[in-house]
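Example for tutorial group B:
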C-alpha cells in the first residue's frame, strides 16, 4: 500500500504544479512548448518503469500475480505504449470538439486539465470493475478479446467521412435539457450569470463532450491493457501516465494530424494483436518481450509510413 500512496501523492503533485505554477495564466501553448512538455512526460513515463522495478523488487506494492520485477516493468511499458497509441484517436476528436465550439487556444489547456481529472476518475472506476470481472469470471477475458478484434475490424471498414459532429451529438442535446447553453464565452469561466439565470459556456460544453468521449474510448483501451496484465497498479499507472501526457501531445500534434494518417492501421494491428492474445491465451503463451516488440514495431512502422506518404504527397 505504500507504493499506491506514493504514486497518488506524486500524481497530485504533478497536477498541482501544472495548474498552479506552469499554467497558472491562460496562454496559447506553442508547438515548441508543447514539444518540450511531451518529451518531459514521455521521458518521465519511461523513467517510472525503473520505479516499478524497484517497487516490485522491494515489495512496496501489492503483487497479486506474483510478478517478478523485470516482468512487471515490461508489462508497465507495454501497457503504457498501448494506452499512448490509443490516445491518438482522442487527439483527433478533441481537435474536432474545440473547433466545433470555437474554443480559443489560450483556454484549451484549462478544458483539457479538468478533462484529465475526470478521465483519471472514470478510468480508475472502469479499471477497478474490469479487473474485478476478469478475476471473478475468467470467461470475460474471451468477451474482452472478441470486443477488441471487433473494434479493430470496425475501424478498418469505417468510412472516414463519417466525422463526429459534437453539436449534433446526443451528449449536447441532453446537456441542453439540463442547463441552458450560451454561445458566449466569458474568459476561462465554465458558467456565466445572465438575466438571473446560470448558463453553461462553450468551455463547459466542450469539457462534458470530451469527458464522455474519453469514457467511450476507454471502453477500447481498458480491455486492451487488461490483455497485458490484470495487476491493478500496473494497469492504473500506465493509464494515468498516458492520460497526463495527452494534453501536451495534443498541442504538439494538433496541427500535424494529417501527417500521421497511417497510424490508424497501427492501432488496428495493436487492437487485433491484444484481442487475439486474450482469445488464445489458453493455447498460445506470448512472451512479454514479444508483445512489447510487436506494439513498438507497429507504432514505428505507422509513423515511418505516414511520414513517407506525407513527403510523397508534398512532392506530387
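The residue assignment follows.
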Amino acid at each position: 500500500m505504500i507504493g499506491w500512496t506514493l504514486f497518488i501523492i506524486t500524481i497530485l503533485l504533478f497536477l498541482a504544479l501544472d495548474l498552479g505554477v506552469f499554467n497558472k495564466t491562460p496562454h496559447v501553448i506553442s508547438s515548441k512548448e508543447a514539444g518540450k512538455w511531451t518529451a518531459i512526460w514521455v521521458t518521465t513515463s519511461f523513467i517510472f518503469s525503473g520505479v516499478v522495478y524497484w517497487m516490485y523488487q522491494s515489495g512496496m506494492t501489492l503483487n497479486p500475480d506474483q510478478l517478478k520485477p523485470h516482468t512487471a516493468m515490461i508489462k508497465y511499458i507495454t501497457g503504457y505504449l498501448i494506452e499512448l497509441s490509443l490516445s491518438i484517436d482522442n487527439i483527433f476528436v478533441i481537435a474536432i470538439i474545440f473547433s466545433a465550439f470555437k474554443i480559443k487556444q489560450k483556454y484549451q489547456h484549462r478544458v483539457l486539465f479538468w478533462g484529465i481529472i475526470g478521465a483519471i476518475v472514470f478510468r480508475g472506476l472502469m479499471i477497478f470493475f474490469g479487473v474485478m470481472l476478469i478475476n471473478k469470471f475468467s470467461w470475460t477475458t474471451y468477451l474482452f478479446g472478441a470486443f477488441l478484434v471487433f473494434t479493430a475490424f470496425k475501424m478498418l471498414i469505417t468510412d472516414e467521412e463519417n466525422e463526429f459532429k459534437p453539436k449534433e451529438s446526443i451528449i449536447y442535446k441532453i446537456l441542453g435539457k439540463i442547463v441552458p447553453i450560451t454561445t458566449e464565452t466569458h474568459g476561462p469561466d465554465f458558467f456565466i450569470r445572465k438575466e438571473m439565470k446560470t448558463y453553461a459556456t462553450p468551455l463547459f460544453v466542450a469539457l462534458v463532450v470530451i469527458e464522455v468521449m474519453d469514457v467511450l474510448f476507454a471502453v477500447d483501451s481498458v480491455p486492451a491493457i487488461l490483455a497485458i496484465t490484470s495487476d491493478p497498479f500496473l494497469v492504473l499507472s500506465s493509464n494515468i501516465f498516458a492520460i497526463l501526457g495527452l494534453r501536451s501531445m495534443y498541442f504538439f500534434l494538433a496541427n500535424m494530424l494529417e501527417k500521421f494518417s497511417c497510424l490508424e492501421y497501427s492501432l488496428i494491428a495493436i487492437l487485433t494483436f491484444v484481442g487475439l492474445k486474450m482469445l488464445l491465451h489458453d493455447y498460445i503463451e506470448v512472451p512479454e518481450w514479444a508483445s512489447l516488440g510487436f506494439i513498438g514495431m507497429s507504432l514505428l512502422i505507422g509513423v515511418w509510413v505516414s511520414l513517407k506518404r506525407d513527403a510523397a504527397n508534398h512532392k506530387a
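The chain has a mean pLDDT of 82. Compare this with the pattern of hydrophobic and polar residues in the output above.
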